[in-house]
């Protein structure tokens, strides 16, 4: 016990403090680095794919909202001319069975000529 010191119940060997640098094979270290870089690129690719899909879905939502806005503008224009669109008549009378499919929902159809030409 003359060579080793007893500190807090543990036997300490004389010598350098701290961790000894492990002699790692340089090729293995390079291969780990390459593998890590490959995984990083794969994660980056997946992240960009996700973001592109998110942007695409938001753009589709914007287009749908623009179409809906255009439909409401047409309704307002028709009402300014004294015409009541059939969709609004159906909403006012509570007769939703006569509405065209999707007429009262927030989704709109591609047809922008939903305005009734009869005076009401």
From TrEMBL:
InterPro entries reported in the protein's UniProt record: bZIP (IPR004827), bZIP_sf (IPR046347), CREBL2/REPTOR-BP (IPR039250)
Predominant place of localization: nucleus
A Gene Ontology molecular function term of the record: DNA binding
Keyword Transcription applies: yes
Location of this chain's protein in the cell: Nucleus
A biological-process GO annotation: cell differentiation
Lineage top rank: taxon: Eukaryota
Ranges annotated as biased composition (Basic residues): 10-21
Alphabetic keyword roster: Activator, Differentiation, DNA-binding, Nucleus, Transcription, Transcription regulation
Region annotation (Disordered) ranges: 1-23, 93-120
Residue ranges annotated for the BZIP domain, each copy included: 26-75
Compositionally biased tracts (Low complexity): 102-120
Pfam families: bZIP_2
A Gene Ontology cellular-component term: nucleus
Family: Belongs to the bZIP family. ATF subfamily.
This protein's name: cAMP-responsive element-binding protein-like 2
Organism the protein comes from: Xyrichtys novacula (Pearly razorfish)
Organism lineage: Eukaryota, Metazoa, Chordata, Craniata, Vertebrata
């Amino acid at each position: 016990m003359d060579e080793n010191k007893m500190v807090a119940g543990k036997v300490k060997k004389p010598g350098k403090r701290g961790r000894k640098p492990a002699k790692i094979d340089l090729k293995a270290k390079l291969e780990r680095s390459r593998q890590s870089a490959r995984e990083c690129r794969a994660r980056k690719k997946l992240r960009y794919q996700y973001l592109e899909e998110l942007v695409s879905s938001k753009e589709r939502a914007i287009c749908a909202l623009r179409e809906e806005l255009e439909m409401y503008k047409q309704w307002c224009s028709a009402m300014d001319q004294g015409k009541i669109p059939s969709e609004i008549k159906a909403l006012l009378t509570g007769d939703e069975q006569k509405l065209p499919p999707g007429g009262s929902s927030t989704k709109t159809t591609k047809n922008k000529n939903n305005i009734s030409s009869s005076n009401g």
